[in-house]
Amino acid sequence: MYVLYPLIMKTKYTSIIDIAKQLNISKSTVSRALTGHPNVHAQTRKAVLDLAQQMDYQRNSLALGLTRHHTNTIGVLVPEFMSTYFPSVILGAQEVFQAAGYQVVICHNNESYDMEVANVKLLLSYRVDGIIASHTKETRNFDHFRLVQRHGIPLVFFNRVSEELNVPNVVVDDYSAALEAVEHLIKTGRRRIAHLAGPDSLINSRLRRQGYLDALKKHKIPIDPGLMLSYDLTIEKVRIYMKHFLELPAPPDALFAINDPTAIAAMEVVKEKGWSIPEDIAIVGFSNDFSAQLVFPRLTTVSQPTLDIGRESARLLLQELQSGAKPDYTNRKAPCVQLKTKLIIRDSSVRKPVVKKKGKK
Amino acid sequence: MYVLYPLIMKTKYTSIIDIAKQLNISKSTVSRALTGHPNVHAQTRKAVLDLAQQMDYQRNSLALGLTRHHTNTIGVLVPEFMSTYFPSVILGAQEVFQAAGYQVVICHNNESYDMEVANVKLLLSYRVDGIIASHTKETRNFDHFRLVQRHGIPLVFFNRVSEELNVPNVVVDDYSAALEAVEHLIKTGRRRIAHLAGPDSLINSRLRRQGYLDALKKHKIPIDPGLMLSYDLTIEKVRIYMKHFLELPAPPDALFAINDPTAIAAMEVVKEKGWSIPEDIAIVGFSNDFSAQLVFPRLTTVSQPTLDIGRESARLLLQELQSGAKPDYTNRKAPCVQLKTKLIIRDSSVRKPVVKKKGKK
DNA sequence: CTGTTAGCGCCTTCAG
DNA sequence: CTGAAGGCGCTAACAG
């Protein structure tokens, strides 16, 4: 494919040469003045800075990256941002990166593997100094991430991490959190607990499922394979599977959902059928999305420290960046940070003890 | 400030020179083979392509941008993404940009003006080919956007547009939408309608407020200035102001909120006070965020075609890009696209006629 | 079809 | 304190 690009060279950016000419000095001096090098006469520096300002000088990162081999920029790779999870993580990460003097560039792939690969290459070609990422639900081949490592640029995974890649990562204890959530259901009297699991390509999906299974085992509740379904995280599938559950001869009396959007979509189906939550069926989600406290009844869920996940990912990356160590981890185990979750019990799993009602005014 | 960067040049990227040497040909030939130039012997091309693959060759966009003067990259600037509005717009925009062969880079500033300025300069220094943006609520000085125009790079505003800048933009008819929403409240019998408006720095905030005022005027409802408050879009303020409203000697019987998060926070306050929605007070929001259909009662709101807003913004930018016209709009009015909104009436403003109840099973 | 040369904008020696 | 020269990786124009 040979693409002809239209020449969009309109108003020329001013370069250091332009301002060097104006001032009748060499471009080296201009460069030094601009970058804050100590060996420049104060007067010269001022002249340069003033003229630069006046001429709208905008340093060319492309050229800079070309010589410097690094750009002071970090790439962030996320699969989606329709839930509040990733936006919030990004917020936390950005906070730390900015404080460290790094700019952040975000790439979003809408759960598309091809897009993810393209974005990784884009970031690589931008010569970002590091990348933090959560892969798509489609990602089974991690070669593009290996490429990142081979280029020696630090990489940190969060949330959706990879087992086959030795990459620093920050996660929560999905297994224990799921176990605790399901135990909560068991302790509140539920016995036929269904689980809507995510795709096997996601490690936290597998871990949460294992937590679910082990909770049942621990409490000697027989496992009914018919009550456990893996799906692709699309809302349509939730509806189909949930309807299926409810129409079972022996329907579940509780649902543990892989995440909050799933739980919420499931609640919708339950309500449409005219069942009551939590009386007829209890629902528990995962992540404590913003919407979890909004739905009616309010959703019991596992809260994740999203801001901290972002912050920790950033710190981990910064650490790699500063250590200057070879980031291929051939000789060492990549560091892994595990953050705490918290089960938030709301109305979707436990009946409210008392309903207070005040009159108007 | 003179910062010393650690030399992070680890595994060297392979360049066309490396592969030229290996193959004992010139780098021009390699370049031609790689870019798909027709004048290359098929055999040579294959050799180059194979070796490139084998050596993890990753074309250096920096160098490319340096020579080509454009980067095939678009910058997207958003103030926040805690509501579903901006994520959804980005989704739509990305769809169009990708189809046109552009990569998208997102910058997020968390409503900080300084951050916005920094991000604009970053994008400029990256030499992006175009920018679509929604400014922060703090932005009153648009010099950084003027800078973009002066550099001749196309710019499109969406949602939060600027009056003092002649920039193509895509918006909805905030005024009429607000008017319709408030008329809905009036027609369903409300008379003391409060309004929580956004800051004056946001044009759509001003337009929605005007729609509110004109709806009252049109229906000869006296305007009570005490029922209208502008605030900074933080949840804490919503709570304070809403409490204030409810404690008024003559409290409002309806609220028109600048956006859905505001409406939802207000509902929370109402519920805490023990009042019923919509019986005691009706609530109407704006934008039809994902959460609008989740809250209880479900929120009446004005739906915005967020995906289309993104798509249209992208199309507008592409158009500017292709026209190659000087994007300073000194001689012409910048194009403006206005998209349709739709009032979605839900339970927060109108009592449900019948409550159907089915038994279990 | 292929090699040579020049230059994009910047920084970094190396000499003054 | 400042200038000259070289090079980062790539493409484009000009010769073959």
Q: In what order do the strands lie side by side in the largest sheet of chain A?
A: 2-1-3-4-5-11
Radius of gyration of chain A: 26 Å
Greatest interface and its participating residue counts: A-B, 83 and 82 residues
What is the succession of H and E elements of chain A? HHHHEHEHEHEEHEHEHEHEEHEE
CATH architecture of the largest domain in chain A: 3-Layer(aba) Sandwich
CATH class of the largest domain in chain A: Alpha Beta
CATH superfamily of the largest domain in chain A: Response regulator
Helix content range of the residues of chain A, please? 40-55%
Tally of extended strands of chain A? 12
Name the beta content range of chain A: 5-15%
Largest sheet: number of strands, sense, barrel closure of chain A: 6 strands, parallel
What structural class do you assign from the helix and strand content of chain A? alpha/beta
Q: Stretches of chain A where pLDDT falls below 50 for ≥5 residues?
A: 1-10, 355-361
Domain HTH lacI-type (chains A, B): 14-68
Keywords (chains A, B): DNA-binding, Transcription, Transcription regulation
Pfam families (chains A, B): LacI, Peripla_BP_1
Protein name (chains A, B): Transcriptional regulator, LacI family
